[in-house]
């Protein structure tokens, strides 16, 4: 297709504002799929994604659209909608010239609306504001228009839409043609194609999703990935409409995928540039950076015989996930396992769930932690991704932790509540501004380790669901951190060690010991629980010894009841690990995340 008839665009939105529903509608209206064969949210292909309703991996769909007697190729590039995947979002946007900014007519502009808008503006995209869900009784499109004006967009130009009822969809497509510029790019130049996604297919090897920026690519070409210098021969090419359709070439400005007998997505890094081996481009496209895990957790099989299967499962998942890292780790308490690195908590949960569901593994997972940069007295700098491996306090000069810059949009009534929460989490206040007369935006610098777990839930509950959050990494910052160990029966359980701020160590130690007392089932003997910093015990609790047989509760001959009780016990045991002579349930390893802040 000629460049002037191509449009590449994304849909960006705050979560739940209707991005997937609008995408479905665009696909349906352009006839890519009849409404009968249309499963809701065809862009989210993994089962898990559908269940959670979260788009994890970007994909592209080619729509064919007639406008004023001409035929256009519209490539809709899907972006993941979660803060864990900001880098993927930014690569997907780099492949576009325009973006539909979807705002819920009842909710208005939210934190991710703004964050996504800024990302899109950084990439110089044409923005088409869409006010969605105008069918809702609580819709207030006028108010949303004003909010759009406040953030520098022409709200009066916004397209009123009901993605659910199919209202306004044609106008959206017409605006894409009219307002999104066709791709620039040098059709005769050396090939430069941006990788914005890749996925592993067991028959074809890795499918690499690209946007051709300069030049063109055809089957049989020998390509080179500029970041890794690896070379492959293109065996197959295609586009999604949304079902895969084979093509034999992709020209300047076009979007599609190719296969080249590539065995692992590790070779096809999102953001890297593809060029031709015999006519390489001089420089890659800007902005590539390798995926960097931010959150680490220990993964241990409950049944140590499953260690090999766990390794195989992780290797398989890694074929399709360049951001997942893992290395073997041994824990005195849990035995042989792996320390795995993830982009964020959502990524971690998805991987853990897939390991259990798709690979039928039962795991003990340790509480997630961030990665610390530790400068030793000797001057040596070490990376610590496991709290148990933090060097002794005497050897440490400084510890630095990752911090984020967070923007929180809240009704002004809740500013006090939000500030209180941010302070509890060691936040440093940066700014307060008003979006309109009822809503404010607060910005804070916060330690990543303090917000990765329940910050968002807390924020929601303290603002009755009204506040929204977005954050970006903002480097490392020194902090007064110490390792807190937990001793059961007088023995340190390495998998329960955490890194906490010195000022909160006492409070956290007490709360954690209490929580563990609730979580660790009674044994036949008394189990003392101690929290300690170095050799100093800061809290102590005791799990009392078990007195009665659990079956004593069942009077007489009710056999089904008895069986049920035994099964329940077995179920409970499934996720236990014996540490020394104490049985510790999975929940205990996560207890640090659940200790109440006072
Ligand atoms: N009433 C109404 N509901 C809508 C409309 N568009 C979407 N919804 C509903 O809003 C909810 C969220 O829609 P999605 O399309 O899943 O939103 P999303 O932005 O893709 O969400 P994520 O993929 O989680 O980011 C769903 O329950 C939709 O049915 C609309 O025009 N009107």
TrEMBL record:
Binding site for GTP: 16-21, 132-135
EC top class, as a word: hydrolase
Keywords: Cell membrane, Elongation factor, GTP-binding, Hydrolase, Membrane, Nucleotide-binding, Protein biosynthesis
GO biological process entries: positive regulation of translation
Tr-type G domain: residues covered: 4-184
Enzyme Commission (EC) number: 3.6.5.n1
GO CC terms in record: plasma membrane
Source species, domain of life: Bacteria
Recorded GO MF terms: GTP binding; GTPase activity; ribosome binding; translation elongation factor activity
Residue spans crossing the bilayer: none
HAMAP family per record: LepA (MF_00071)
Protein name as annotated: Elongation factor 4
């Amino acid at each position: 297709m000629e460049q002037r008839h191509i449009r590449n665009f994304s849909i960006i939105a705050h979560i739940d504002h209707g991005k997937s529903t609008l995408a479905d509608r665009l696909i349906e209206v352009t006839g890519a799929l009849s409404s009968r064969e249309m499963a809701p949210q065809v862009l989210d292909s993994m089962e898990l994604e559908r269940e959670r309703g979260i788009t994890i991996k970007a994909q592209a769909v080619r729509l064919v659209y007639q406008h004023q007697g001409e035929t256009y190729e519209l490539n809709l590039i899907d972006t993941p909608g979660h803060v864990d995947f900001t880098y993927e979002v930014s690569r997907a946007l780099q492949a576009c010239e325009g973006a539909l900014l979807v705002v819920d007519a009842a909710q208005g502009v939210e934190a991710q609306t703004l964050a996504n808008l800024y990302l899109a503006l950084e990439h110089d995209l044409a923005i088409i504001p869409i006010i969605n869900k105008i069918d809702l009784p609580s819709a207030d499109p006028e108010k949303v228009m004003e909010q759009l004006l406040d953030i520098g967009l022409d709200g009066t130009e916004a397209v009123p839409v009901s993605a659910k009822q199919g209202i306004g969809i044609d106008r959206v497509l017409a605006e894409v043609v009219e307002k999104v510029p066709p791709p620039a790019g040098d059709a005769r130049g050396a090939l430069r194609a941006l990788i914005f996604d890749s996925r592993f297919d067991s028959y074809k090897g890795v499918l690499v999703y690209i946007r051709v920026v300069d030049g063109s690519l055809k089957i049989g070409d020998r390509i080179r990935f500029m970041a890794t210098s690896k070379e492959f021969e293109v065996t197959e090419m295609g586009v999604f409409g949304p079902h895969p359709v084979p093509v034999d070439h992709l020209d300047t400005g076009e979007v599609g995928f190719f296969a080249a007998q590539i065995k692992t997505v590790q070779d096809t890094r999102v953001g890297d540039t593809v060029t031709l081996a015999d006519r390489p481009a001089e420089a890659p496209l800007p902005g590539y950076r390798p995926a960097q895990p931010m959150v680490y957790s220990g993964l241990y099989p409950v049944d140590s015989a499953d260690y090999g299967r766990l390794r195989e499962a992780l290797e398989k998942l890694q074929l399709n996930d360049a951001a997942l890292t893992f290395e073997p780790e041994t824990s005195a308490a849990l035995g042989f396992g792996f320390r795995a690195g993830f982009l964020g908590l959502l990524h971690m949960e998805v991987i853990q769930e897939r390991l259990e569901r798709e690979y039928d593994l039962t795991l003990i997972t340790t509480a997630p932690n961030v990665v610390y940069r530790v400068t030793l007295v000797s001057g040596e700098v070490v990376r610590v991704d496991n709290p148990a491996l933090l060097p002794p306090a005497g050897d440490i000069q400084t510890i630095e932790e990752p911090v984020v810059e967070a923007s929180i949009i809240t009704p002004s009534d809740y500013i006090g509540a939000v500030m209180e929460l941010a302070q509890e989490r060691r936040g440093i206040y940066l700014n307060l501004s008003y979006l309109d007369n009822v809503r404010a935006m607060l910005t804070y610098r916060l330690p990543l380790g303090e917000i990765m777990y329940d910050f968002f839930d807390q924020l929601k509950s303290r603002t009755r669901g009204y506040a929204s959050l977005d954050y970006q990494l903002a480097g490392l910052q020194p902090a007064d951190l110490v390792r807190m160990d937990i001793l059961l029966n007088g023995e340190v359980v390495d998998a329960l060690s955490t890194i906490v701020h010195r000022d909160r160590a006492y409070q956290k130690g007490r709360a954690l010991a209490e929580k563990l007392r609730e979580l660790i089932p009674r044994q036949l003997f008394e189990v003392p629980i101690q929290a300690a910093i170095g050799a100093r015990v800061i809290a102590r609790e005791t799990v009392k010894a078990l007195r009665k047989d659990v079956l004593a509760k069942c009077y007489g001959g009710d056999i089904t009841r008895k069986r049920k009780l035994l099964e329940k016990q077995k179920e409970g045991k499934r996720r236990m690990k014996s540490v020394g002579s104490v049985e510790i349930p999975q929940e205990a390893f996560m207890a640090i995340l659940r200790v109440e802040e006072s």
